Recover the amino acids of this structure.
């Protein structure tokens, strides 16, 4: 019944001249109400305006696609100052510790040019205690057509550095990617055309399930967060730049974000340097070659969350100097904001 409604709505729209140029996977549109189109256009116009203002200053705008919003803890005034200073055009803030994704809509309503409505981040107990119920809620929310991206979903997650420091191990998460929750998430992306973010620690034993799902859901689109963040190298011997290049060439819906720690960072529980995208303090040449070969598949991101709010500036500046600045001019524009624009809006960025 759903599928039929979607098709009927799409065909009605496709018949109208105003929609003639849209590709059939325009994210969210198939599910949205026709009445939302004007607010959608207003949202896109505001984002476009801010990106252009930064470009006109001959600076490189960033759309930050991975960030977790926590009401009462995220200092929005501070973040807006940071965004203005660092030329971050937009943040896709995914609310955590919330009953619904409504806060993302509220943020966008209050600061329309700054924040992109993103569904709940799957980084808190409501996700890992009952991922199926969580996704059923997201599915209902996406039918409004008001969201542009699905937040980060943890399927395999080691405790974060700040949790380790606090002696917390509660976020040692394992949810099978090829189980019911993974099926529901990949299917949701196929049904809506929206991209989801995946947190999936890099382990050899976990890769077959990912490849199975990518093959089973070829129209699903996802951003595998934290490129080359390897926290236990002995568990990840098969993950190499060549392996990732192969994945990109086999699976068109797969993307990666560049939210990773600084080159010298050591993940305490393993004692290993986890930012393997870098070697000798700079972008590793083999990884640089993969990004340059597939510049439409990598996205800038901060991994903002409230406990590390004060590091936002360093995280963005590091991404600029160590990654974006060393890419070719066209690739840098794609990775910083062009790919995000395309994935979130369904339109190619045009200046
Ligand atoms: Zn993550």
């Amino acid at each position: 019944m759903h599928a039929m409604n979607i098709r009927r709505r799409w065909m009605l729209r496709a018949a109208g001249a105003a929609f003639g140029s849209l590709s059939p996977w325009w994210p969210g549109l198939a599910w949205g109400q026709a009445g939302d189109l004007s607010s959608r256009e207003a949202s896109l116009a505001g984002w476009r305006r801010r990106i252009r203002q930064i470009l006109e200053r001959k600076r490189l705008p960033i759309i930050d696609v991975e960030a977790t919003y926590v009401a009462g803890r995220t200092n929005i005034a501070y973040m807006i100052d940071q965004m203005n200073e660092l030329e971050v055009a937009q943040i896709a803030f995914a609310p955590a510790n919330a009953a619904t994704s409504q806060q993302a809509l509220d943020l966008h309503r209050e600061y329309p040019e700054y924040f992109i409505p993103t569904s709940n981040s799957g980084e808190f107990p409501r996700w890992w205690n009952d991922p199926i119920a969580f996704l059923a809620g997201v599915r209902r929310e996406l039918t409004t057509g008001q969201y542009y991206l699905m937040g980060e979903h943890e399927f395999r997650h080691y405790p974060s550095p700040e949790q380790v420091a606090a002696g917390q191990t509660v976020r040692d998460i394992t949810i099978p990617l090829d189980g019911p929750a993974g099926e529901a998430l990949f299917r949701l992306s196929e049904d809506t055309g929206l991209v989801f973010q995946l947190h999936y620690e890099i382990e050899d034993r976990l890769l077959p399930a990912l490849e199975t799902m990518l093959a089973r859901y070829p129209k699903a689109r996802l951003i595998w967060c934290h490129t080359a963040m390897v926290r236990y190298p002995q568990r990840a011997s098969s993950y190499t730049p060549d392996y990732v290049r192969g994945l990109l060439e086999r699976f068109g819906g797969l993307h990666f974000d560049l939210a990773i720690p600084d080159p010298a960072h050591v993940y305490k529980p393993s004692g290993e340097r986890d930012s393997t995208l870098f070697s000798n303090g700079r972008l590793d040449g083999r990884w640089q070659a993969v990004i340059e070969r597939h510049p439409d598949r990598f996205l800038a991101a901060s991994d903002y969350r409230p406990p590390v709010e004060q590091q936002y500036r360093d995280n963005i500046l590091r991404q600029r100097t160590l990654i974006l600045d060393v890419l070719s001019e066209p690739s840098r524009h794609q990775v910083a904001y062009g790919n995000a624009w395309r994935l979130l809006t369904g339109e190619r960025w045009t200046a």
The chain has one domain: 25-345. The radius of gyration is 19 Å. The first helix runs from residue 2 to 15.
